[in-house]
Amino acid sequence: MTDLRQALRATPAVREFTDEPVSRDTVAAILDTARFAPSGGNRQAWRVVLVEDPATKAALRDLYLPGWYDYLAMGAAGLVAWSPLADREQEAKAKEAAPEIAARAAAGPGGMAEHLERVPVLLAVFADLGSLAAVDRDLDRYTLVGGASVYPFVWSILLAAGEHGLGGVITTMLTAREAQVRDLLGAPASMALAAMVALGHPVRRPTKLRRRPVPEFATVDRVDGVPLEPR
Ligand SMILES: Cc1cc2nc3c(=O)[nH]c(=O)nc-3n(C[C@H](O)[C@H](O)[C@H](O)COP(=O)(O)O)c2cc1C
Prior knowledge:
The chain is of the alpha+beta class. Helix content is 34%, strand content 13%.
């Protein structure tokens, strides 16, 4: 298997990190590779903030947690959390369980969310809205295309981190608290928070990822066409 194939097929979401620090040089090297990602019109609308200040990291954790427990509550109720097509009433009902989930988490050891301030590298990735080619911006549906100019870059950060023995996860939970995050990090209103990327040395690195097989999501000629079978 080529290195690229291996990286594409086996780069997991890593949320448990050792205490080993990651240098600014390493982060800069990762971004130096990720910057070759494509973007609409090659506008490279991404803007990255490496968050090192402990008080800022703790503030980000506090902003992250309410959304995280809402997410878990919606998942526990069998919902696709924050689907643009979701029934908002059903969602609100599901979220009533969030405080209980939060209390249980507070009584336990906690995971990445509860200890976000300990994540070795936190990268806030903003999108400069003025530089996005969002061709669906005027359609009468949820807009999607603008993000496509930033998320390939975000994914390239994770792929490039693997070369340095690092793992991580793309998180978007904080975007629900975007205004507060912008205030914390000094971002203007023209910048949208695309992701907070967590990176560090993985405690463990799963290599077998669960993904749907090709015929389950690809068809020929039409959406209701015959499934595309890999040869
Ligand atoms: C756009 C996007 C948003 C995500 N948001 C979060 C998040 O807020 N918090 C989190 O812990 N993981 C988040 N993830 C990680 C996904 O849960 C993870 O990629 C998925 O479950 C697959 O995990 P695996 O590669 O380990 O199988 C996000 C991933 C993507 C691509």
